[in-house]
Amino acid sequence: MKIYTKTGDQGSTSLYGGKRLPKNDIRIEAYGTIDELNSWIGLIGDQVEETSRQFLRKNQEILFVIGSHLAKDQDKEMPLPVLDDAALNGLEDAIDRMDEELIPMTHFILPGGNKLVSQIHITRTVCRRAERSVVALSQLQILDAFIIKYLNRLSDYLFVLSRWVAKKNNVEEIKWIPKK
């Protein structure tokens, strides 16, 4: 099978189900940003310890499921992998476990400190952009409410992961202290 089909050469792409849309359609933007997020999570997963790596890989699979839901032609009945609310509990449990090891925040934190911490913050912001795209899409058509909840929780997880990785690597958090 060839990787190139040439069917997108005129600026359109096919949804799962065959319907064609312009490549700048909000739906394409939403699942494209999910794909970008998944790639950033893969990069992070390549640099963290094994338990976090495995957890991130599970969440990459969930992002693929979300992508399939976003890429489906809404006008056709087609089988899709299930979106499971247990994934939200998994994120919350991971957040709580890491948070137990962290000192409470007293200031906003500037992204940075070392390369991995910065990459996690970039991933968090891509997650927030994906969430905004999905919210915009949800205003045009019905989506599974899980998707927005999941992206919101995933960005929370990524924020706490950045703090936890900083702590584990003895990286001082950069506090934002506004000038008065």
Supply database-style keywords.
180 residues, mainly alpha, two-stranded antiparallel ribbon, two-stranded antiparallel sheet
Task: Give structural notes.
- The model has no long low-confidence stretch (mean pLDDT 92).
- Helix 1 runs antiparallel to helix 2 (50-71).
- This protein has helices spanning 26-45, 50-71, 86-99, 115-138, 145-168, and strands at residues 12-14, 20-22, 108-110, 174-176.
- The chain is mainly alpha-helical.
- The chain is elongated.
- Strand 1 (12-14) and strand 2 form a beta hairpin.
- It has a two-stranded antiparallel sheet with strand order 1-2. It has a two-stranded antiparallel sheet with strand order 3-4.
Concise synopsis of the structure shown:
By secondary structure, the protein is mainly alpha-helical. It is built from five helices and four strands; from the N terminus they run E-E-H-H-H-E-H-H-E.
Layout of secondary structure:
Blueprint: E1 12-14, E2 20-22, H1 26-45, H2 50-71, H3 86-99, E3 108-110, H4 115-138, H5 145-168, E4 174-176
Helix pairs in contact: 1-2, 1-4, 3-5, 4-5
Low-confidence stretches: none
Oligomer: single chain
Query: What's the story with the biggest beta sheet?
Result: 2 strands, antiparallel
Our measurement of the CA-to-CA distance between the termini, rounded to an integer number of angstroms, reads: 62 Å
Strand order of the largest sheet: 1-2
Using DSSP, what is the number of strands?
Answer: 4
